[in-house]
Prior knowledge:
The complex is a heterodimer of chains A (334) and B (288).
Chain A lengths: L3 E10 L2 E11 L4 E5 L6 H9 L6 E6 L2 E2 L10 E4 L11 H12 L3 H14 L15 H13 L5 E5 L7 H18 L2 E6 L2 H7 L2 E6 L2 E6 L1 H6 L4 H6 L6 E4 L1 H4 L5 E4 L4 E4 L5 E10 L3 E7 L7 E6 L9 E6 L5 E3 L5 E2 L1
Parallel strand pairs in A: 3-8, 3-9, 6-7, 7-8
Antiparallel strand pairs in A: 1-2, 1-4, 4-5, 9-10, 11-12, 12-18, 13-17, 14-15, 14-17, 15-16, 18-19
Helix pairs in contact in A: 2-3, 2-4
Chain B lengths: L3 H33 L1 E4 L4 E5 L3 H8 L3 H31 L5 H9 L6 H12 L6 H8 L7 H4 L1 H26 L3 H9 L4 H28 L4 H6 L9 H11 L3 H26 L1 H4 L1
Antiparallel strand pairs in B: 1-2
Helix pairs in contact in B: 1-13, 2-13, 3-8, 3-10, 3-12, 5-8, 8-10, 9-10, 10-13, 12-13
Amino acid sequence: MGQIKLNQVSKSFGDVEVIPPLDLTIEDGEFTVFVGPSGCGKSTLLRLIAGLEDITSGHIEIDGADATNVPPAKRGLAMVFQSYALYPHMSVRKNIAFPMRMAGVPADEQERRIDAAAKALNLTDYLDRRPGQLSGGQRQRVAIGRAIVREPSAFLFDEPLSNLDAALRVGMRMEISELHKKLATTMIYVTHDQVEAMTMADRIVVLRKGFIEQIGSPLELYHKPCNEFVAGFIGSPKMNLIKGTEADKHGVATIGIRPEHLDVSSTDGAWKATVGIAEHLGSDTFLHIHGVEGCDPMTARVDGELPVKHGDTIYLTPQLDKLHKFDAQGLRVD
Amino acid sequence: MATQHSRSAARLMMAPAVILLLGWMLVPLTMTVYFSFKKYLPLRGGDLGWVGFDNYVRFVTSSAFWPSVMTTLIIVGGVLAITVILGIGLAILLNQPMWGQGMVRILVIAPFFVMPTVSALVWKNMFMDPNYGLLAHLWEFFGATPVEWLSQASLTSIVIIVSWQWLPFATLILLTAIQSLDSEQLEAAEMDGAPASKRFAFITLPHLGRAITVVILIQTIFLLSIFAEIFVTTGGAFGTKTLTYLIFQRVLESQNVGLGSAGGVYAIILANIVAIFLMRIVGKNLDA
């Protein structure tokens, strides 16, 4: 139904190669997230799949059929854009009806699908408003509604939540996840926010400079990042990467330890250090710690009840079974 | 502008501009209305006293009045249609990425900077002259008899000349409007299965609605009073006498200031009727 296969797909703008040849298979019904820092080519990759950009070389297969030269409208994919791209002069109803109108769906069938989508997305009361009269979250839902009614074989999301405020973002994240569970349609979701990636994905594709760094489930990436980049990108707060003599003790170039895998004591431990900034979140406290050789500042995540303040001397001990080791090329050593 | 003092200071400083503008409009308007009720023939006796509404009646009952109103509306309507339609086309073309875009855009704007008198003379002598005009040569090249543009197709010729002058203005406004169209909307429509023609009809054209309104309103204001283009080409002959031109003939050629002033008042009324219609039809586009 919605399997998408990229075979040696590459993209260049003039002389600049944005995406070197890459292979990727997205299974039917899977929620795949492309994540990476800005400029890593994740949006370009999505636009290549959508057909909005021509690929420079390689093949794209959708549902087993070659779609490399198929125009975007004929690929059976629906896209939700970052700016929502609603048609401002049309009512919500007409916006949602637009793809069906273009496809020549009969009017009563259009009505049925619009009502179903509006009910699913809580838009029933807003069908006759214009996009300009809606809030950001409502516009987002209209954009999703416009995608749903096409009954596509896969949904493409291009950073759909980045224009929403933090609280709304969490809510929409859940709604999109629920939608995926309900429809069980393939979804490809582009974001630069690793929290979105971790919370929503079945499978995460980490990209950097057009290269796929690692593909795996959220927990695979968390527990076994295959290189330093993925280790630093996945997880919040970021993993502490320690170079120098401490790493030499383990016989590697770099060791990594997540802030939540550091034991903090006020009396003794492996590393003696000073507390810099302490961020109290209530449930947890993030300590920014100075004085550990090879990693400054180091971050530790401790219980919110722990009485620490700026300038305190503390002792840190890494949980050795949770230690990540990387060689001089930054690759994981097991 | 918060305090009483700064508000009165602002009023004081704006006063000269407001007074100048008011004087600029009110004095000629009052004079026009004043003369329209008089029999005033500067070379044939001067001020011959009050005549009531005599001038108004004579102006509308003259055989030249209704044809001149029609001519005015045809010219305005024709130029609007040509400039808006071609302007949209040109704006779309100029919005495509191409080599030398900046230069081409400047060249497209150029006709707007040519004075009306000059451009009308250039068209009359270089293009439309039946003996040595470029169009005559073109016609002869294909073995046809050259058209005597300004006498055989006089109204068309004037519409062409005026359109040529105003096309850059329309193009410029519409181009800036097209540039402000969110490309994601077009991409979304493309994904939704709309071919290029439907993307134009459903996305681009509605987006241009407001800009088209502005073009129509501004051009109408100026087109109702075109004069130089007629004066230097046909001189009002061959059915090209607009209301403005008729008033000019009454005042300066017939030396009948009273009759011309009455025509001027009619012109004001006509302009306002057109303005009200335009505001009704297209003004709602500006609200959204």
